[in-house]
Amino acid sequence: MKSIYFILLNLFISQCILSSQVQTFDFFYFVQQWQPALCDKKAACCYPTTGKPALDFGIHGLWPVNNNHTFPSFCNENSPFDENQILDLMSDMQKDWPTLACPKNNGKKFWAHEWNKHGTCSLSMLDMHSYFQVTLALKEKVNLLQVLKNAGIRPDGRSYGMKAIKEAIKNGIGHDVVIECSNDVFGNNQLFQVYICVDKTGSDLIECPMILKRKCDENIVFGDFGSDTEGSSISL
Ligand SMILES: *[C@@H]1O[C@H](CO)[C@@H](O)[C@H](O)[C@H]1NC(C)=O
Fold it and tell me: Could you tell me the distance, in angstroms and rounded to a whole number, from the CA of residue 124 to the centre of ligand 1?
């Protein structure tokens, strides 16, 4: 009899330890980056070894957020990135989640970073395979480039009003988004990242619970890849 209590007690204690290790969070930011903007900053870009990415937004990541606007990070060292768990997703990852970091590589370093820093903080909702799968599904669901094109906003290197860009996206996806800008090599403010709020399951778009402050000018450039932008900004 005593040993049963002992086992139950141990079970209770280990459950407490386990649950205290699982990070909670309130919603996600689904962050996409405009690929050419990565090649048009002071830092150089390198096309992935798997090929030049399409002229499109690429996934940056799916980031768990708390309602008090803190971002939990690196939550579980015991669950490191393991490509063997997502082999079936590899070709979609290469297409929709490319890396433009130098030196040129196949993207696994980027995905491992996103998993280790952000993904491990949403283990209470999504295991590794689900985390990458729902993120790819969000990219399919939200075609930002098409939504912008529908409003006559094209990546032609011209300037567009921030108001028009935000309105076009709101009309297309039904929710306000946060836009982040960067400066191109000429010092022009340009479209860089778009943050979309997503519920904890990673499947439904929601209104953002709070305003994330990111700075952009009133008019911003929507750029194309240059004729040969890869690595070119090193010399500028
Ligand atoms: C924010 O919320 C999280 C989760 O509830 C909590 O762990 C953290 O301590 C809070 N941080 C601040 C600065 O309030």
Answer: 16
